[in-house]
Amino acid sequence: MSTATSKVSTSRRPITVVVVALVLLALTLWSTYSVIANAASEFLITTLAALVLPSILLATILAGGAAGILAVGLLPWRPLLAGLAGGLVVGLLAMAGTLVAYHHGPAVPYVAAVVAVTGALGGATAAFRPLAAGIAGGVAATGLGLVVAYFQNDLVDLFGNQETVGTMAEAASRLQLTTSVVSGVLAGAVAFAYLRRTGLALPWPVYPAAGAAAGALTLVSTLLGWLGRLPLTEIVEDYSEFDAQIIYSRLPEQINHGMIVLFAGAFVAMILVGRTIRRA
Q: Which helix H or strand E contains 39, and what residues bound it?
């Protein structure tokens, strides 16, 4: 009876991850639409599209990966092909949502293609078991990021904002660092729990690899975001070098965030699995 219950729980887990990941993707696309729809000029639309593209790609690669996990379990194909197919479906859905939000500016086909390819790449990661658990951790970390973004004004005040430029910048920096660390801890813990509940006897290095996967996917989406917004940034730079520098400055911040999530996730997963290993 317990074995049957365990099998049912295991089969439902990918569906749960897919549903949550798709909800997060939908929320990200809706937020993008709300921001861009209120833009007053084509220049502002292009600038905002370049700024929000990495967030769309992160949500897309995670949702594509989650769909890939489900496809690998359902389709009688090779895992890599099944994962690609599942991820591509999500990529096309994300591309459609992106086109709803961003369809008047320049380089629209290029941006749309990058979104679709990102979904397919996310699905391909489902062929590797540690990354499958890492996707669950990444979904949890992304959900935390959306919550932080929603309450950002209140949280910045909590971290020491005194309504001056200096204190606002310091508070935002503290909030960003805290969010990155907590996201990594959450990703590592969720990845560990995901693998642990499979009941499989896995070598211990699989656990820190799964914990690091959320950060690795964040870095991949950051790279794809940089590539995807290159034509947009060039257009923005023709109008305003200052606005272009704001876009460029986001790249180091996103890389730092991804690296922190990667190392924190791996460390937490390693500590958790270490506590389960019996002493000889």
A: none
Q: What is the pLDDT of residue 108?
A: 82
Residue 53 backbone class (left: φ over 0; alpha: ψ -120 to 50; beta: rest): alpha
pLDDT digits (tens, 9 = 90+) for 23-36: 999 999 998 888 88
What is the rounded CA–CA span in Å between residue 203 and residue 276? 12
Neighbouring C-beta atoms of residue 261, cutoff 10 Å? 33
If you ran DSSP here, which 8-state letter would residue 279 be given?
Answer: P
Reading the block at residue 20, the tokens are 């949550």
Buried b (16+ CB within 10 A) or exposed e, 174-206: bbbeebbebbbbbbbbbbbebbeeeeeebeeeb
Dump pLDDT digits (tens) for 128-154: 766 778 888 999 999 998 888 888 888
